[in-house]
Amino acid sequence: MKISVDELLNEALKRGIDLEVICNHRLKEKLIEHPRIQKPGLALTGFTYHVYPERVQIFGETEITYLNQLSPYKKRKAVKFLEEIPISCIIVTKGLNIPQVLKRKACKEKIPLLRTSMQSSTFIIQIEDLLAELLAEKVVIHGNLLDVFGVGVLIIGKSGIGKSELSLSLIMRNHRFVADDMVEIIKKSPRVLIGRSTELLKHIVEIRGLGIINIKDLFGISSIRDTKRIELVIELIRWEDETDYDRLGFEENYYEIMGVRVPLVRLPVTPGRQLPALIEVAARNYLLKLKGIDSAKEFKENIDRALQGRFREEIE
């Protein structure tokens, strides 16, 4: 995954991260490939072995102070590595005055040069979090995402099966809405999936017969969440009389998203079934399993013990 410096700049400004452009060469061409930043202090002394061009280079007070105390000749020598390594971009922190030698070299080598008024430590935390999100593996899934008792529940199923109506029912039962129809999912870590709405459909639900509904406007800000970790998948399927559905819950099913296995519950849809209540129970049951309480497993163990006891009695 790669993003341009221009994409990083635009997204940072959207989120209130202070950045100004000093040298705007090749903002759309220069690519960032790694979420970790780098402080090239040693590179200024001539040791450039571990300078990674695909990372954002941060010049903080240490780097700028070091440059300022050098003689003009040594300053030019210190920044010479910028013509040897195709760095993606340089960001100067704390609103520091940028030495002319650094500014000239960056512009000459067409390296984007930016500045922030933020402290280095604060800026690094925010920019690394942003880069981790922008560079993360992503996928968009047709479904709905809600926060039910604190559990991120992704509802999937064929078009027209009632996902949006079910989501509306859950919202009216004081659960929180995240996304309808198109859920953008980000792989935050090897085991963590974060879901959110696409920008165009944010806070919006489409209900057949009613049209477009803005959940935030209709139910208030407490009824929505911008993002939520996906912890449980509910698949709505049409009821078929000849199908033998799971009645005991002994079998554990999973839904795989970008290599992450998420617990899956399949709910047959038929008139009269209280699906909002069933999803609430599924969420509560998931929370119980996190505490090590598995009702189906305990029931099976009780049956096994009872059968073993009966078998011993028959032998005796």
Protein traits:
about 325 residues; alpha+beta; Udp-n-acetylmuramoylalanyl-d-glutamate--2,6- Diaminopimelate Ligase, Chain: A, domain 1; Rossmann fold; four-stranded mixed beta sheet; 9 helices; 18 strands
Describe the SSE topology.
Layout: E1 3-4, H1 5-14, E2 20-23, E3 31-32, E4 56-59, H2 61-68, H3 72-78, E5 89-92, H4 100-108, E6 113-115, H5 120-135, E7 138-142, E8 144-148, E9 151-157, H6 163-171, E10 176-179, E11 182-189, E12 192-197, E13 204-207, E14 211-214, H7 215-219, E15 227-229, E16 232-238, E17 253-257, E18 260-269, H8 275-290, H9 295-315
Parallel strand pairs: 4-5, 5-6, 9-16, 16-18
Antiparallel strand pairs: 1-3, 2-6, 7-11, 8-9, 8-10, 11-12, 12-15, 13-14, 17-18
CATH architecture of the largest domain: 3-Layer(aba) Sandwich
Q: Runs with pLDDT <50, length 5+?
A: none
Task: Spell out the CATH superfamily of the largest domain.
Answer: P-loop containing nucleotide triphosphate hydrolases
Shape: elongated
- According to DSSP, the number of beta strands is 18
Assign a percent range to the helix content: 25-40%
Structural class: alpha+beta
CATH level-1 class of the largest domain:
Alpha Beta
- Helix segment tally: 9
Radius of gyration: 27 Å
How far is the N terminus from the C terminus?
68 Å
Q: What are the secondary-structure elements, in order, as H or E?
A: EHEEEHHEHEHEEEHEEEEEHEEEEHH
User: What does the average pLDDT come to?
Assistant: 90
- Give the domain tally: 2
What order do the strands of the largest sheet run in, or round the barrel if closed?
10-8-9-16-18-17
How large is the share of residues in beta strands?
A: 25-35%
